[in-house]
Design a protein that fits this description.
The protein is mainly alpha-helical. 83% of the residues lie in helices and 0% in strands. The longest helix is centred in the middle third of the chain and has 24 residues.
Length: 71
């Protein structure tokens, strides 16, 4: 493996292990769950943009609070 490949791999691993990346992934997962639930209710795919907008408006602040509070 070349030095460039090793550096890229290590950089990629660092990003994936960062708390910011993990938080982004957790938020994205919640949005995708919301999209699935709302699409099931609507009887059709509502699309990512609509799910994102609805989730931000109605769920994001509570979700963030629950992530910050100790369980």
């Amino acid at each position: 493996m070349s030095n460039m490949q090793v550096e890229t791999s290590n950089g990629s691993d660092l990003v994936k292990k960062s708390s910011l990346y993990r938080e982004f992934q957790a938020e994205r997962d919640e949005i995708m769950k919301h999209k699935w639930i709302e699409s099931e209710k609507a009887g059709h795919d509502i699309g990512f943009e609509r799910a994102l907008t609805d989730w931000i408006s109605n769920h994001k602040s509570k979700w963030r609070q629950s992530r910050r509070s100790p369980h």
